[in-house]
Specification:
The two termini are about 15 Å apart. It is elongated and about 95 Å long. The protein is α/β, with parallel strands linked by helices. The protein has an 8-stranded mixed beta sheet, sandwiched between helices. Its cofactor is Zn(2+).
Amino acid sequence: PYPPVQMYGRRKMSATFSAPQSKCVDITLGSCGDVPYTKTMYPNLLDQKSREVVEFSSEYILMSVLHNLLQGECNPDLRLLSCSILAPQCEKDKMIKPCRHVCENLRKNCLPAFDTIDMAWPYFLDCDRFFAGEEEGCFDPLAKLRELAEEDLLVEVPTTLIQFTHHSYSKMVSILKKTASRCSHIARTYSIGRSFEGRDLSVIEFSTNPGHHDLMKPEFKYIGNMHGNEVVGKELLIYLAQYLCSEYLLGNPRIQTLINNTRIHLLPSLNPDGYELAAEEGAGYNGWINGRQTAQNLDLNRNFPDLTSEVYNRAGLRWARLDHIPIPQSYWEGKVAPETKAVMKWMRAIPFVLSASLHGGELVVTYPYDFSRHPLEEKMFSPTPDEQMFRLLAKAYAGAHPIISDKSEGRCGGNFVKQGGIINGAQWYSFTGGMADFNYLHTNCFEITLELGCEKFPLEEELYLAWHENKESLLTFMEMVHRGIKGIVSDKFGNPIKNARISVKGIRHDVITAAGGDYWRLLPPGTYIISAHAIGYSKVMKRVTLPAKMKRAGRVNFVLRSLGTKPKNFLRGPTEDIYERYDPLEHFDPHAQHAQSEPREERGQPARHNEKPWWWSYFSSLGQHKPLWLLKQR
């Protein structure tokens, strides 16, 4: 509920009006001393009748602390706009309303900052309620601020403005939302779930159709900060988001081509709880333990289902499937992090084609399998059926990185010079429950792991160099999603066939079609026999040659003929095994609060929904007059 406010002159088509027996007076409010006018009037637009009433109001206290609450975002703009309501301009004993378009523009740019701290937009900055149109004779409270800003502008506009700093969780979310707002026609932010302590796992997406999968457009993802104390990847993805937005707006043809033809998802921090713990140690502390794990003390890169062991057990069975392996029921008997569940559900919801996870502590690119084919061998070359493609992907990133591609052995990552800066994961060291192996064996997605430096939490002054070294590699790797073949599988009437299997002769790993019948199959240059088959349809085979210089996916469509009945001896489709049986992941709510302190309905007591946000303490002096209007409706 908003406080009652008398709207003087509401029925008049004018922004100027006078209250009965009111005169213009000097502005004496401390927080409004720099407004571009000298006189105001009481009662003000909120019907507050004196300076003393204003200074003790929740609206004035909020205006005074917004700079701290929003960590400098949108200030002094918000303060000046608030002053135009609490101490509106007065001329010739007439009050003048501020302009509505100024309010609307500021709200569009600043609302993400309020969302970040879970605060509602202040009622007294309601653009329709307290502001007026230009035709009504309004005034612009930010005009002077803009004039000063224009004087400071350089003649040449820089290509991209990025602040190379460390970002707390709240700053990260704010930057992502601000970037998405700036490029709202090609970007959006969303959450794939919540961490154990309740922080949103925020993603920024770039696409010409944000929020939707477009037919034939491949899906790509980068995941950073899986280990909370390995922060370079997190910062690089924040910088990358700003770079993609700015360069697209500036007409960079490479970036426009990439975004116009790819749906890109950036998840800067999969472990925000761990990051906050690591950040307490401070930059420059090369911590190998603090913050690595989640708030539940779980290592996320050991928490995924071990499907690699299942592959090794099946390998000798000629007809056993080695792709789209279901999650074993026994997996759910252990402790599964909400972050792990959220990212697995995300992988199922979107038909990702290519991915990389960004880590720190070494300088090398690794690829699956990460678990040795012999459980007693800690360092054993353990290739997937797509060894050749994975090596091509790893080399694409390593080759564009000036340090990884350096032949010097006396540097960070020098141990991997002879391998070209890349290595099979299990050959480096073997472990189970990794995310890269799970991507490959449970979904269509190929994922590699990027170890981006020997220092896990570098000093701030080292971040620009990290961006400079990795920018080209990050872009080059994203472009690799367009290698191989793509197409649509349909029946003779043009109806798409979902979950059809695309097989490559000699490579024992299939991909399946998405809901629209489209598919993408990453392949290195060469000649292949490709087949498409689905339950109830005939099998179709085609011979395909991919030239060495081919940089775009070749189009290979399939039209399958219906057999009328389902053959009894046909292998069960992937989704029949995985998704149609009871699966705890399908019933998991990734946006639920998972912390130990989460409210539970026990002994007839309802769950508590009245817990206040952290900033509520700023208004403790107001007693019963606290600003309930700042609390978002639950």
